[in-house]
């Protein structure tokens, strides 16, 4: 009898432990799903130069790609987020928007004419974003998004570098034009100064001649 009671107590203890583990697992799954169901936070763009055309557009896409790379849900298989529906579909929609934006950057913003060579950074970013969003291994979607983010940052730095070069060239050309204008003014003033004695002598001669003839 005592052995049977001990067995029953052991069974009850194991059952309680199993229920507790199951309860903790359910709580864990619920917490993870709630955390990953939160709406994206508002982002602020700071420190961007308004004179650099396209800087804000590129920065917005960088932020979106970074958010996807940090917490990509559509390819989750062995995690509680696999049971989510809204946020994975939302992220797939964001991916389509970013793909379209980067394609516009590659085809239009990165070159003046359609016959010009594609920017290698924009081309690489678009290629990485074209990866299968449901792959979680070899390569994972997150790894491709991180590569795309790196390429977009490289393209952004190239935009700033080109803007700085353009400003320097414009400043040098402005300085050269001002220097040429000043030199022309100096030459013109010197020529006028050299011509004035001859002009004065000519006027005096023109005035003296009639008087002598008279």
Offer a concise description of the structure.
The chain has 214 residues and is mainly α.
What does this structure look like?
The protein is an all-alpha fold. It has one domain (14-166). The protein is built from five helices and no strands. The protein has helices at residues 2-35, 55-70, 86-109, 120-129, 141-213. Helix 2 (55-70) runs antiparallel to helix 5 (141-213) and helix 4 (120-129) runs antiparallel to helix 5. It is rod-shaped, with a radius of gyration of 38 Å. The N and C termini lie far apart (164 Å). The model has no long low-confidence stretch (mean pLDDT 84).
What brief labels describe this structure?
214 residues; 5 helices; 73% helix
User: Could you tell me the mean pLDDT?
Assistant: 84
DSSP strand content: under 5%
Poorly predicted parts:
none
- Taken from the alpha-carbon principal axes, the silhouette is rod-shaped
Distance between the termini: 164 Å
Rg is: 38 Å
* Total domain modules: 1
Helical stretch tally? 5
Name the structural class.
mainly alpha
What is the ordering of alpha helices and beta strands?
HHHHH
Helix content class: over 70%
Largest sheet: none
What's the β-strand tally? 0
Topology:
Blueprint (H helix, E strand, L loop, with lengths): L1 H34 L19 H16 L15 H24 L10 H10 L11 H73 L1
Helix pairs in contact: 2-3, 2-5, 3-4, 4-5
């Amino acid at each position: 009898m005592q052995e049977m009671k001990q067995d029953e107590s052991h069974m009850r203890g194991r059952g309680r432990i199993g229920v507790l583990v199951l309860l903790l697992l359910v709580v864990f799954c619920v917490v993870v799903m709630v955390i990953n169901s939160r709406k994206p936070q508002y982002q602020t763009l700071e420190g961007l130069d308004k004179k650099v055309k396209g800087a804000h557009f590129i920065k917005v896409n960088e932020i979106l790609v970074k958010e996807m790379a940090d917490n990509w849900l559509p390819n989750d298989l062995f995690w509680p987020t696999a049971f989510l529906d809204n946020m994975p579909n939302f992220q797939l929609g964001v991916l389509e928007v970013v793909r379209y934006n980067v394609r516009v950057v590659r085809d239009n913003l990165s070159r003046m004419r359609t016959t010009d060579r594609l920017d290698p950074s924009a081309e690489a970013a678009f290629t990485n974003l074209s990866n299968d969003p449901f792959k979680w291994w070899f390569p994972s979607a997150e790894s491709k998004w991180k590569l795309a983010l790196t390429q977009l940052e490289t393209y952004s730095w190239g935009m700033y570098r080109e803007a700085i070069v353009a400003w320097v060239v414009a400043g040098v050309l402005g300085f050269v034009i001002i220097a040429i204008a000043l030199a022309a003014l100096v030459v013109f003033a010197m020529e006028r100064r050299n011509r004035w004695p001859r002009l004065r002598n000519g006027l005096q001669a023109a005035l003296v001649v009639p008087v002598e003839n008279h």
